[in-house]
Amino acid sequence: MNPILHQNIDQQEVVTGNIDVLILCGGFGTRLKGVINDRPKPMADINSKPFLDILVDYVAGFGFKRYILCIGYKGDFIRQYYREKNSDLTFVLQEEKKPLGTAGAVKNAEPVMQSDRFLVMNGDSLCEIDMKDLFAFHIRKKGIASIVQTTIENPDDYGVIQLDENQRVVSFSEKNSTREVGFVNAGIYVFEKDILRDIPPEEKCSLEYQVFPGIIDRGVYGYRTDKRLIDIGTPQRLEMARKCIPFLREKG
Predict the structure, then answer these.
(1) pLDDT at 1
(2) What whole-number distance in Å separates Cα of residue 76 and Cα of residue 80?
(3) Does residue 31 fall inside a structural domain?
(4) Distance between CA atoms of residues 248 and 174, nearest Å
(5) Whether the Cβ atoms of residue 9 and residue 137 lie closer than 8 Å to each other
(6) Taking the CB of residue 56, how many other CB atoms lie within 10 A of it?
(7) Residues whose CB falls within 8 Å of the CB of residue 232, separated by 6 or more in sequence, listed in order
(8) Is residue 176 in some structural domain?
(9) Is residue 10 part of a domain?
(10) Number of structural domains, the chain?
(11) pTM of the predicted model, to two decimals?
């Protein structure tokens, strides 16, 4: 695959220290219950370290300091861990009382958000992109949302997104096993706070199926990368993550 280049972007103008990072941690992790059943999926052990810690450490390497952990299923496990964690980072725990889906969890975090532009990530996957470059891309495009895309060999469980020549999203195809291989949704997003007006409060709602198709005409862009997507959503992927995560390069 050819490298995906993002040129003419001034990363020096991107200040990340005051940007909220929302991490979606509330899923049931149904496919992992035969492997881990005492904790939520983002806390799966990866070589003696919770996956969520690995994710936070990676993002923190780009200067992000404030993390809103959107918890649900077995949320007390995450709450207790980060309550006792000694860190220079700020962790805010926002719990959903019932399953709200990916968009509902973001809406539920609105009362504790401080930044007008924010990063959203799935708590069970990691893609080794340059987060400052992603934000610079988003700022340059001046849209309401930017979605990270990458390619994988077996895309049946991921959403494929079609872009035009200006990287603007023109169509979505979420988790459809009849698709051809293409760029998939990596579960990393930059949003403007205005997007919250498109999410109903206290209702189960999906970013992928409900919100994104409804805002496509307001400027949704795809940030394409050739970086690998590491996903721990199945026992097989979890085992693969345990093998490849130690080789992620350190960020400073």
Answers:
(1) 36
(2) 6
(3) yes
(4) 28
(5) yes
(6) 24
(7) 32, 41, 44, 46, 51, 124, 125, 238, 241
(8) yes
(9) no
(10) 1
(11) 0.89
Nearest one of 121, 117, 129 to 105, comparing CA atoms: 121
pLDDT at 27: 84
Question: Where in the sequence is the domain holding 58, given as residue range(s)?
Answer: 16-247
> Which residue ranges in the chain fall short of pLDDT 50?
1-7, 178, 249-252
User: Minimal CA–CA distance to 100: which of 115, 110, 87, 112?
Assistant: 110
Displacement of CA 64 from its chain's centroid (Å): 14
Residue 159 CA to its chain's centroid (Å): 13
Count CB atoms within 10 A of the CB of residue 122. Answer: 22
Q: What are phi and psi of 54, to 5 degrees?
A: -65, -45
Answer whether 124's CB lies under 8 Å from 26's CB.
no
Going by C-beta distance under 8 Å and a sequence separation of 6 or more, which residues neighbour residue 118?
19, 20, 21, 22, 190, 191, 193
Q: Degrees (nearest 5) of the Cα angle 94, 100, 102? A: 85
Torsion of CA 185, 200, 66, 147, to 10 degrees: 20
The domain spanning residue 62 has which CATH number? 3.90.550.10
Residue pointed to by tokens 């996957």? 125
Q: Are 110 and 66 in contact (CB under 8 A)?
A: no
Number of H helices and E strands in the chain, helices first, is: 6, 11
Look at strands 20-24 and 117-122 and give their pairing: parallel
Residue 73 domain flag: yes
Q: How far is CA 109 from the centre of its chain?
A: 15
Output the six-digit token pair for 191: 């949003």
State CA 101 to chain mean position distance. Answer: 13
Give the span between the Cα atoms of 58 and 82, in whole angstroms: 17
Query: In whole angstroms, what is the distance from residue 89 CA to residue 82 CA?
Result: 10
Give residue 249's pLDDT: 43
